[in-house]
Design brief:
The complex is a heterodimer of chains A (396) and B (103). With 396 residues, chain A is of the alpha/beta class. Chain A is built from 16 helices and 14 strands. Chain A is globular. In chain B, the strands form 3 sheets. In chain B, strands 1-2-3-6-9 form a 5-stranded antiparallel beta sheet, with no helix packed on it. Chain B has a 3-stranded antiparallel beta sheet with strand order 7-8-10, with no helix packed on it. In chain B, strands 4-5 form a two-stranded antiparallel ribbon. Chain B has 103 residues and is mainly β. The model of chain B has no long low-confidence stretch (mean pLDDT 89). Chain B is globular. Chain B has a single domain, classed as Archaeosine Trna-guanine Transglycosylase, Chain: A, domain 4 (Roll). Classes of the chains: A alpha/beta (396), B mainly beta (103). Chains A and B meet through helix 6, helix 8 and helix 10 of A and strand 8, strand 10 and helix 1 of B.
């Protein structure tokens, strides 16, 4: 089993597997400009357009700031440009300062201050060119699997997810943890009905208590909104794929994290440790927001399992697609990276498929492009703090 | 694959499970052997969907992965398709909480 890859050493000591220049808008008002600046510069520049408004409640704003800072600090980012419209509550300079603490080159740009979109596009382009030159100075050096932080995600689940793709990715996580690395999975609503299994695996009482508390809070959100979680969990697509209840989906979903002890659980977009073993993150079940949370936490690579098919990627982290559904592998071949369908067909064991996933992760860390990267699939979304959740948080 | 495969047609993930997962599109009338028991599918069961390995009474818990995945909302015969029409979750039921709050 291969363990080495060549990456980009950052001042922080962490290793990147890509050398992008990130263009980070502070709100929806600067998102179009950010996208425009990056598109004109070339594939090395990656924008993270999102829908958050110029004014947000404090809890939401802090979360958005944590995401922007986290993505900027991700080791796959060699330099960053923070773009504001100029009226946001979020201060672009403060975001830039927090990213620059790691010794990363960062610039800011205010659309209003430079005199509108045309000037912003022009100034932004100039700034990006010099940031790219700075990023190109990163030491390109050999690194070990123990330095990888891999985020694990599932989307478009069907019944093959729980019996093939997720156990195969879980096996790859076990290999990564054995090699000294960090694996992280999330999507707290998909712990519901399986939390007792996870709780038994928590390394200490504090983690166990935190995990159960987070699951309870997610379940209570459904109560707060007076809705039946079944409308969304499992999703109509999941149901068509054979998943009947959230418990069934969860029990299949948690297998993608492997079998090692749960070392901790961090907040949405909170920094994930290097060499941390299996660490959970409290995120929503919406895959794009969940992937972004882990990338903001420092994951260099995302492994994404799907049954029914998904084409989702991320602007700064390569997303490796693993499907356990032989039909999806055939139909969406160009968007898939690893076939775990052989497990369903009885042609491979879970361990063999897990080894394939692990090898693919190392190859991607070494520069191999994923299907999502080749097609520039770069979804980006930040999760909002639900208004009723806000009311609840404030009243306690 | 984890679990036990029934004649290449379906998968039982853990001992004691009350449902099996179809590994291909299965048609009604197909005979399935589970150890010493034989049953006939009473419904079409699409790839990835489940059927009951034993009769379930209304309200009885349904087991897969060796864990509870929900409860039967009506009596289910062995060989019957098990899905949202006859099995429901016991979790995340904000609708039930809301109805009870109104009472």
């Amino acid at each position: 089993m291969r363990r080495e890859f060549t990456g980009y050493r950052r001042e922080s000591g962490r290793i990147g597997v890509r050398n992008h220049v990130a263009v980070l808008p502070t709100s929806v008002a600067s998102s179009c400009v950010a996208r425009g600046i990056a598109a004109e510069a070339g594939a090395w520049a990656r924008a993270t357009p999102h829908q958050m408004g110029a004014s947000q409640p404090d809890e939401s704003r802090e979360q958005t700031e944590r995401v922007l800072v986290g993505v900027g600090r991700n080791p796959n980012v060699g330099a960053a440009l923070v773009v504001e419209f100029g009226t946001e509550d979020i201060d672009a300079d403060e975001i830039a300062d927090r990213i620059a603490r790691d010794g990363k080159p960062v610039e800011t740009l205010s659309v209003r201050e430079v005199g509108g979109t045309a000037a912003a596009l022009q100034r932004g382009r100039t700034a990006l060119d010099s940031l790219n030159e700075a990023a190109a100075n990163a030491r390109h050096e050999s690194a070990d699997a123990s330095e990888l932080v891999v985020g694990v995600e599932c989307g478009g689940s069907d019944a093959t997810s729980g019996i093939a793709a997720n156990p195969a990715v879980g096996d790859a996580c076990d290999r990564l943890v054995a090699a000294g690395g960090t694996a992280s999975f999330s999507e707290t609503p998909e712990f519901i009905g399986a939390e007792h299994v996870l709780a038994e695996r928590c390394a200490d009482e504090e983690t166990r208590r935190r995990l159960l508390d987070r699951v309870e809070r997610r379940e209570a959100t459904a109560d707060l909104m007076g809705v039946d979680l079944r409308g969304a969990q499992p999703s109509p697509g999941n149901q068509e794929g054979g998943l009947t209840t959230i418990e069934e989906k969860s029990l299949g979903a948690i297998s993608k994290g492997g079998t090692t002890p749960v070392r901790g659980i961090v907040d949405y977009a909170e920094r994930l440790p290097v060499g941390g073993g299996l660490v959970l993150m409290d995120t929503p079940g919406y895959d794009v927001e969940s992937v972004v949370g882990k990338v903001a936490g420092g994951a260099q690579i995302i492994v994404f399992t799907t049954g029914r098919g998904s084409t989702t990627g991320n602007p700064v982290a390569p997303v490796v697609k693993v499907t356990g559904n032989p039909r999806t592998w055939e139909r969406m071949r160009a968007n898939m990276d690893v076939n775990a369908g052989a497990v369903v067909e009885g042609d491979a064991t879970i361990s063999e498929a897990g080894e394939r996933v692990f090898d693919e992760v190392l190859a991607v860390a070494d520069g191999k492009r994923t299907g999502a990267e080749t097609r520039r699939m770069e979804e980006f979304a930040i999760t909002e703090v639900h208004p009723r959740e806000l009311a609840e948080v404030r009243s306690t | 694959m984890k679990g036990r495969v029934l004649g290449g047609a379906a998968l039982v993930l853990a001992d004691g499970d009350s449902v099996a997962t179809a590994l291909e599109d299965l048609e009604a009338g197909r005979e399935i052997h589970n150890g010493n028991h034989a049953m006939t599918l009473t419904d079409d069961v699409p790839f990835g969907h489940k059927f009951a390995l034993e009769p379930l009474s209304a309200g009885e818990t349904v087991q897969k992965y060796g864990e509870v995945i929900g409860r039967a909302t009506e009596a289910v015969a062995a060989g019957e398709w098990v899905h949202t029409h006859n099995c429901e979750s016991t979790r995340g039921r904000g609708d039930v909480a809301a109805t009870e709050a109104e009472r």
